[in-house]
Design goal:
Blueprint (H helix, E strand, L loop, with lengths): L1 H34 L15 H6 L1 H13 L5 E6 L2 E6 L2 H8 L7 E3 L5 H5 L9 H11 L5 H26 L3 E3 L1 H17 L5 H18 L10 H28 L7 H20 L11 H32 L1 H14 L10 H6 L1 H13 L8 E3 L3 E2 L5 E2 L4 E4 L1 H4 L21 H4 L17 H18 E5 L8 E3 L3 E3 L4 E6 L9
Parallel strand pairs: 2-8
Antiparallel strand pairs: 1-2, 3-5, 4-12, 5-8, 6-7, 9-12, 10-11
Helix pairs in contact: 7-8, 7-18, 8-12, 9-10, 10-11, 10-12, 12-15, 12-18, 13-18, 15-18
Length: about 500
């Protein structure tokens, strides 16, 4: 038997080696055929391509892609990762072309290179046409001025609660603020989105599962037991199930005519109103009117949570970083906040007062511009697409329009942190509006951007007013790190101390 096996190996090994070599050669030829004249690596490792460098040092990987794209008049570059040909877009004009052509026969927005495996098919970003328009229309009541005013009081209570705990943790030492901001945002999102429907034990389990999800985002998409990606995918399923139960409880409460206290209540209230209206027209019971299932709503709530969580954390830590390095901006923020809000009044900042804080809003928008949290917005080419006169994107390509790079095009002295560019007098925000892509563009532009800006403004206002802070600066501390959104490399380490006589007691 051993002799037969030895003969088989000796006879067929050369053929196997030749077959493998042929497959590798064909893969390399396929890559070069799609790459054509564009800048990018000439040779790539079989199948995995440059996945190792992407995972081990994403900052360096994407910086290299940006530099290659910038080096050519077209403003695009290529690479190869996990069997996927990728295209990086530096040019704002070409990024807009991608955003404007999200449809079945052009580009499919994916949000994450392996997003469908992780998020499932329910996600808003995977929808097209009328279905997408209908869902956005139904989401809109969640972000009316009345709804946003309800959320601002919730946001402030949680911000104050966490700032108190940060001071206790600091105790004269510098502490990293990124994870603390993330925990604060997670509690904020949970409370704003599903309010009273998520009990203490459910929140603890929710936080554990969300951490599994967050870790899996940055790992290779190996969907096998024991791998972080599998843990993340299963965690998403559990999170959606938890949010489904919240939707069920909210529907019962809204059917009883109670006032909305969180986002799912506003959504349920609108769903019930719409169903009743259709039932009256069709002369049937509202229960028989087709609507989203509770599980679908749970999936959409998870999408909101994901969109609000890590991007917001990124913006908060960069806000601290830039306010610390620009003391004149910090003093202007403090002066403006003092004109509208006294923490000793024990009243939250009212929605009307927040709208008057024009400079604080300018600071928030400048933070988002200069450090766009989601630096790229991945799409997949559903069909061959003529991006330029002489380059057609092959079907199946993962396309990365760079929101980050667009933020440094057009604006006056774009590398300088300058909130005044967003004030009415300068009008840079209008003149270079097309370059401000932090919230996307086209049909899939972020529906919750006003909520996101409000949250950042509230944090800047309260943190600046209640806390004295100083970054612990060392070489490279402000370098960009991907986690997967961008944050300072040192996780924003800072010294904190009380600035006010007492913290407000917000009810």
């Amino acid at each position: 038997m051993e002799s037969l096996w030895a003969n088989f190996v000796s006879e067929y090994t050369p053929y196997l080696i030749a077959l493998v070599a042929l497959l590798l050669l064909l893969e390399q030829i396929s890559y070069l055929k799609r790459k054509r004249f564009l800048p990018g690596p000439t040779l790539v490792l079989p199948f995995i391509g440059n996945a190792i460098s992407l995972v081990t040092n994403p900052t360096r990987f994407w910086d290299a892609q940006s530099s290659l794209a910038k080096s050519t008049p077209l403003g695009i570059s290529t690479n190869y990762v996990i069997g996927k040909f990728i295209l990086y877009i530096y040019s704002t004009e070409l990024s807009h072309k991608v955003f404007a052509n999200v449809r079945p026969d052009a580009f499919h927005l994916v949000g994450h290179p392996f997003g469908k495996k992780l998020f499932g098919e329910h996600n808003l970003i995977y929808m097209f046409g009328q279905d997408h328009k209908d869902l956005r229309r139904r989401i809109a009541p969640n972000f009316t001025p009345k709804a946003l005013a309800t959320y601002t009081s919730i946001q402030q209570r949680i911000i104050v609660k966490h700032l108190k705990s940060w001071l206790q943790k600091a105790d004269g030492k510098s502490i990293p603020l990124r994870i603390l901001c993330r925990d604060m945002n997670l509690e904020t999102s949970q409370t704003v989105f599903v309010g009273p429907y998520l009990g203490g034990e459910a929140r603890d389990r929710f936080n554990i599962d969300y951490n599994f999800f967050n870790v899996g985002l940055m790992k290779l998409p190996i969907d096998l037991p024991g791998f972080a990606f599998r843990n993340a995918r299963l965690a998403v399923e559990r999170l959606v199930e938890t949010l489904k139960l919240c939707a069920e409880e909210s529907e019962t409460k809204m059917q009883n005519g109670e006032e909305p206290t969180c986002l799912i209540d506003f959504w349920m209230q609108e769903n019930l109103r719409e169903r009743a209206e259709i039932a009256e027209k069709e002369g049937c019971d509202s229960e028989k009117v087709s609507s989203y299932s509770h599980r679908e709503l749970g999936g959409h709530l998870f999408d909101f949570l994901f969109a609000a969580q890590d991007a917001s954390t990124s913006s908060l830590v960069w806000a601290i970083t830039f306010l610390d390095s620009h003391p004149q901006v910090l003093e202007r923020v403090r002066g403006e906040v003092e004109r509208y809000w006294n923490p000793e009044s024990d009243e939250p900042i009212a929605a009307e007062q927040l709208r008057e804080m024009k400079f604080t809003e300018a600071v928030a928008r400048e933070v988002v511009r200069i450090r766009a949290p989601a630096t790229m917005v991945p799409h997949i080419a559903g069909e061959d697409f003529a991006l330029t006169e002489n380059y057609v994107i092959p079907k199946g390509t993962i396309v990365f329009p760079s929101v980050f790079d667009s933020s440094f095009q057009g604006f006056i002295e774009p590398d300088r942190f300058d909130p005044d560019r967003f004030l009415e007098e300068r009008q840079e925000a209008r003149v270079y509006k097309k370059n401000f892509l932090a919230f996307g563009a086209g049909a899939h532009q972020c529906v919750g951007q006003r909520y996101a800006i409000n949250h950042l403004m509230l944090f800047i206002a309260m943190f600046s007013t209640l806390i004295d802070f100083k970054r612990e600066r060392v070489d490279g501390c402000d370098d960009i790190a991907y986690v997967p959104t961008i944050v300072p490399k040192d996780d924003c380490k800072a010294f904190l101390s009380d600035r006010c006589r007492r913290f407000p007691s917000l009810s």
